[in-house]
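Minutes, project huddle
Topic: does the predicted pose make sense with 4'-deoxy-4'-aminopyridoxal-5'-phosphate bound?
PN asked that the exact inputs be recorded in the minutes so nobody has to dig through chat later. Recorded below.
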Amino acid sequence: MKDTRSKELYERAKVHIPGGVNSPVRAFRAVNRTPRFMESAKGDRIIDADGNEYIDYVCSWGPGILGHAHPQVIKKVMDSCENGLTFGAPTEKEVILAELISELIPSMEVSRLVSSGTEAVMSAIRAARGFTGRDKIVKFRGCYHGHSDSLLVKAGSGALTTSVPDSAGVPKDDTKNTLVAEYNDKDSVQKLFDENKDQIAAVIVEPVAANMGLVLPEEGFLEFLREITKDHGSLLIFDEVITGFRLSLGAQQYYNIKPDITTLGKIVGGGMPIGAYGGRREIMQMISPDGPVYQAGTLSGNPVATAAGIETLNILKNDPQIYERLEQKTRKLADAAREAGKGHICVNQIGSLMSVFFTDQKVRDFESAVTSNTEQYADYFGYLLDRGIYIAPSQFETMFISNAHTEEDIEKTCKLAGEALCSLDF
Ligand code: PMP
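Predicted holo structure (tokens), as shared on screen:
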């Protein structure tokens, strides 16, 4: 497979862009390869600058649940562009999107649109602190909530991939109120509540953790978080930037738990930059201009982005079987990997999310996730990349399956993934 043009572009990129990329994991450093510069994408395929075509299981890290360039979404975006790119004034589309969000995720009675997941989470934390009058927050080791200062503590995703789960440049004072518990470990949460009585504003969690590879919540864990936060007058924040509209409409419906605040990103923008945070009316009334918690954005609620978001959510809403189809396809991939991996790997899967860990341990938290052999992951990745299958260039990310993945492409992937696993020296 030719990669001359990608290599040329990467060399040029490195001159004026840090590491040659605008988000670290894209640099392929964890898999020792040259990043592929992409040119176009349609359905389940993505095409690079050398003309190579891949079946894409990154799906832009989650937004692409309908596949790339869905014709209905593209049409709405084009129509919206004709009417102007940004006004910095309210529009009907913002109202429609807020109504849709609250219809599909009822706990988000009132929501505010922002432009990224990072911004959504950062603002949600501020709202929780403003509402409770408390400063401390609890997060989980290996969960990623964007790159705002107070949350870059024991973080997953790119932070974990590049081996710096605590970032340089973050003042100690900015993280002194961030307490870290272990995912799926109730005792570790209980201990923090015992030690910090009446000081914890919120517990923030990825209801399904997808930034240390995919790690599922064990039975009772999310229920426990709901109870302990309620008992202590703290808020429960579900960071559904990945899971929102991906596992059924939200993880909260999947698990039947109502958080106080929810953060969204990715799918809610249908491929355009949108994030959102929202929750109970009394909490969201704290936000400016209704209340004293300040938060604003020049491009927030952008008309082109909201056009893409509304159309995407409407397509999902009007096709209730979609989640079952996604689950079936993904289960097929997971079963094929399990069979070929013969006990040397751990495959975690839920809905259209999946991870293959190169460990014989059951991956249920950060500690077990990092037992994975990342060199084997790199070999697995390389084998697939060279044969036209594009998966996340890091062990500590997740595979995303879209509605556009055809049965034929799933079969092809099962076969190649099986070969890739059999080629490894376990
Ligand atoms: N929260 C979660 C759970 C995420 O997965 C991400 C990004 N992958 C973020 C927040 C940050 O979103 P963004 O990259 O849009 O800032």
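Observations noted during the meeting:
- The two ends are 26 Å apart (CA to CA).
- Residues 61, 116-118, 121, 144-146, 157, 206, 211, 239, 241-242, 265, 275 surround 4'-deoxy-4'-aminopyridoxal-5'-phosphate (CB under 6 Å).
No decisions taken; revisit at the next huddle.
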